[in-house]
Amino acid sequence: MKTIFGHIAIVGLGLIGGSLARVVKQRKLAHTVSAFGRNIERLQKARELGLVDNCYKRFEDGLHEADAVVIATPVGIIEEQVRALAPYLRGGAVVTDVGSVKGPLVAALEPRMPRGTFFIGGHPIAGTENSGFESSFAELFEGRICVLTPTRQSDAGALERVRKLWIAAGSSVVLMDAEVHDRIVAAISHLPHMVAFTLVNAIAGMKNFKQNILEYSAGGFRDFTRIAASDPVMWRDIALMNRDNLLQTLDFFTRALEDLKDAVYSGDGDKLEELFKQSRDTRRGI
Fold first, then answer.
1. Beta-carbon neighbour count of residue 250 at 10 Å?
2. CATH assignment of 180-285?
């Protein structure tokens, strides 16, 4: 496969960053892959495993060699990371990210990039409940959607190179306004995680059983709540950064839950069947 970048730097080598490093190395999408992070011992382990070629703790030690920088940290510190690394960027460098909230980041970062460098907001809609590069795998992005959120000011060449990177990693790329993206993911990604977290806490907190009822959980409960095992810090940051959109979706969900509760309370079997059928048909269409 054709090389897209000479040197890619990945800041934050977790599940997403590690999986990107794997696919870049496996498909030779860059000549060199470097990792930056605070825990140099873990990064050295990733280098020993062949995920990356170099690892650094400080941006000043190796970032100037990169023509692409991918920020794969929790969204709450992406702006901080970009501001810290900006002085060490080489001319023509492209900076992108993988955060699942785009509006505030694009608005804050694009106008403040050093002259001759470029920021393209990105969000590969992929992941698992696991974290860390130890859980990464090169096929994570295969058949998934990656949303890029360029603006009218975005450099066309930088956008095209980032688009080619994600296509080469196996994703279908969609260009979208950042604010539209945030409203969509609030509903299809952020809300389900909030529901899963809350459901697990609610069941675990039930005091009217002598038994530990979680010991009796079977496939349905475990499948539905799998994502409740996700990184708490990452999801704290997402919930706060996309707060307004998330609150709107929580309101919609609360009203839908009240409709279900009313149907159960009133013994309205026809209404229950209607709700369940609507849900089944929608789910089958996904």
1. 17
2. 1.10.3660.10
